[in-house]
Amino acid sequence: MSEPADRPKPSPVFHEKRTYRQRRLMDAARLAPILALLLWLLPLIWPQSGDARVSSAAALIYIFAVWAGVIVLTFGLSRALGSRMEDDPGSDP
Amino acid sequence: MTTLNILVAVCGAYVLFLFAVAFAADRIALQGHKAWLRSPLIYTLSLSIYCTAWTFYGAVGSAARNGFEYLTIYLGPTLVMVSWWWLLRKLIRIGRTQKITSIADLISSRYGKSSLLAAGVTILAVIGTTPYIALQLQSVTLSFSVFAAEAHDRTPERLESFALWLSLGLALFTVLFGTRNLDAKERHDGVVMAIAVEAVVKLVALLSVGIFVVWGVSGGVSEALSRIDASEFGQWQTDRSRWAGLIFLSAAAFLCLPRTFQVLVVENDDESHLRTASWAFPLYLGLMSLFVVPIAVVGLDLMPDGSNPDLFVLTIPLALGENGLAMLSFLGGFSSATSMVIVAAIALSTMVSNHIVMPIWLRVSSTGASVSGDVRNAVLMARRISIVAVVMLGYLYYRMSSGGEALATIGLVAFCGLAQVLPAMLGGMFWRGATWLGAFAGLTAGFGTWLYTLYLPSFGVGTVLPVSVVENGLFGLAWLRPYALFGIEGLDPLMHSVLWSIAFNVLAFLTVSLVTFPSPIERLQAAQFVNIFEHSGSKRRWSGGVAQTEDLMVMAQRILGAPEAQALFSAHARKQGVRGDLPDPTPDFLEVLERELGSSVGAATAHAMVGQITGGMAVSVEDLMAVADETAQMLEYSAELKEKSEELSRTALELRNANQKLTRLSIQKDAFLSQISHELRTPMTSIRAFSEILRDTDEMGPEDQSRYASIIHDEAQRLTRLLDDLLDLSVIENGQVNLNLRDGLLKDALDRAVSSAAIGEDGAQLEIQRDALKEDISLFTDLDRLSQVFINLIANARKYCDADAPRLVIRVMQETDRVVIDFQDNGSGISAEAADMIFEKFARVSDQKAGGAGLGLAICRQVMTRLGGSVDFIPTKSGTTFRVVLPYRLAMAAQ
């Protein structure tokens, strides 16, 4: 009549430093797409007429620079979160 | 002509190569070396199914026409991939846990396994995908025509026959590798491998053309950039609503397109592959789009006016005499088109066969799904027919639209149509309150709006929708104009449709979900989907067939007990004529099993458990197993407890009885002791008193002396008799007496008893009646002891019979196996209460006639027990009757 081993334990209020860091990493992973979206929506407020128009080359460089940044960020996050994927559901409230 | 022939040859070789790759991959998978086939790299590359020929050729065309807008098509999926942690991981986990086979299955499964929703999404997918397939055929024939034009051989018949042969070839490939196995999890190793190879080919092709354009034509990066600035779209210029709207649309499409869902969720073998894909696929998309603008700019510069910008990727190398590069580019486009058609056909055929054909087939066919092989063949056949039908539908669409401009925009139109699934999908994944009716309402509203404002007008004004409707609105209502709902004009038609259809969709979905109440299965599924990480481990799979029966067996053993379960299963296996001990999970067998289990765990639980293992995915099997285990343990434990407590109470009862007996014995012992001391004391008192008188009285006459001496003598005799009796009783009771068994006649024993007991010391006479003839029975027993019993009985009758003329009747009766001797007097008898007592020691019926110590009958009973017989008091109407029973066995032994 022992407790089933896989019954979810109530999560503690405070976490160890390591766990805390992991949770903030998960937050970062959730926020990353929002950051990317904001950066890619930025061209919406670029002026489309007059002298201050952005040159195509600059626009191209900006968008691909953001792209590269997003790839690097996601790469880093996926590496950091990799170990968490198998052992922890990671769906904290 | 040579180029064209070479092209056909290369094309054929490439197709053969793809067949070989797919075949080899399937073989390797069959041999079990899946690890190599299912690497994160292959998974990432297979996601490139999103990039079709439309993006391969069309992106450059779009850039040449609309500037940077083409980027949105890649930015949307990139954002989705970056959202892997909270979105895709959950989607894939749901797909794996719930054994999702397609997007229609996902929606249906989430909303209470609704077949209506599944069929609806399937129809939506077919409508949205068919034009897309047509688009692929068009792009390939178009690119083919470029080479044909080079070779001055541009006959439409050849092109059309080429499109037809292409369609047939694709259908054949898909049937061959797409319907090889019918796994519960729809995985196609060969197809995925071929797609991965094609993904590499199209990336290499586009990069080669891009590098050639930037470094070969423009002369370097900075020159290319300045060339862009100098071109006609040198400044940032884009439609803002389309920029934002298309990012959303492409993101939605990436999630909802049947083919991307197929590779993203269904073909996923390992969740951890997502980790790699989360950054690798954005990288792939980035590389695919990197050189699009330079190619477009160079194409606009180099190519004559009026040339099709959609084909710049091909025509630039051709124009510059780079035939090899052009060939590679053609193969890139060919790869994009073919992989899209193959995967779309697989995904659609799964949906069509599972959600449209099979439900109808099962309903129509009278036998039902009782024979498993039947269903299997039917499903495979349905799939094959569906694949051919889907590809041919695309071909027909291509022929009917005759390759016009309408096709070019159909890609985004299809995106918008399939994006209607998104609210129901995301709502189902993240909101437990989403209901079946809500999803249905949302899909209907969104689909309807899309149909009216985008799809039907896309065929061209005046073909499906009359001109009057487009200009004046439906029924002449101006606010119902398809391009300006509610009178809002000036929007881009695509964005107009996206805005309204998604708005209506979400509104209907949310409103109806809020006001309706979900069915139990829906609520269960909602909890499963939304809290998927709490309900599932990552490595959990059940396969069908015999494994199912094994699972059932395991479960049944846990609940019914191993021998019972094995007996049940093997009995049914024999009944079904199946070899071995595992029967097929037929409905009959399941019903029996469910009943059996139901008797242990309750009908509802049993139903859930059996349904769980045989197909229903409502609750995770492991959970139920745990419940069953626990229940079985508890049942066992409580049964044990019950048994133990029964044992305890039995022991307690025995102890209580023993205690009572001991107490009774103790009381008896006390009573016996006080009785015996009293009995001993009475004669001793008189002996002492009279002996004192004799000693102390000097002047006493001899008469007195003699009287007192005789009293002392009498009392001493009485005392001796009492002690003799006690000794006798003790000896008999302890079983230490030696019986002196010998032959003799009952008559003699009675004679001796009568002569010694009939006349008392006080001379009281007792008349005794006997029947001498009947007493003539020879016995083999202890005659002295028997006489002792008779003497006691006769003496008692003499002492206690209170009749005026006391009389005793001795009757002897010979029965089959015993001799019965009754002693009946004519006195007033003994009361019922006293009758219980008379055989106890020191029991006397009345004190006034205290003649003896009250041990006589007790001794009699002990003696008779020793002799194998009994002496009892028989209640009669008049007088007192004692019955002595002597077993005939002893009597017989005398003869």
Polypeptide structure, described:
The complex is a heterodimer of chains A (93) and B (895). Chain A is mainly α and 93 residues long. Chain A has a domain at 22-41 and 55-83. In chain A, 61% of the residues lie in helices and 0% in strands. Chain A is built from 2 helices and no strands. Chain A has helices spanning 17-41, 56-87. In chain A, α1 (17-41) runs antiparallel to α2. The longest helix of chain A has 32 residues, at 56-87. The radius of gyration of chain A is 21 Å and the shape is elongated. Chain A starts with 16 loop residues before the first helix and ends in a 6-residue tail after the last helix. The longest helix of chain B has 76 residues, at 621-696. Chain B folds into 4 domains: 2-419, Sodium/glucose cotransporter (Up-down Bundle); 546-619, no CATH class; 653-730, Helix Hairpins; 738-893, Heat Shock Protein 90 (2-Layer Sandwich), CATH 3.30.565.10. Chain B has a 5-stranded mixed beta sheet with strand order 4-6-7-9-8. The termini of chain B are far apart. In chain B, α9 packs across α17 (323-364), α21 (436-458) packs antiparallel against α23 (493-515) and α30 (621-696) packs antiparallel against α31. Chain B is rod-shaped, with a radius of gyration of 55 Å. Chain B has 36 helices and 9 strands. By secondary structure, chain B is mainly alpha-helical.
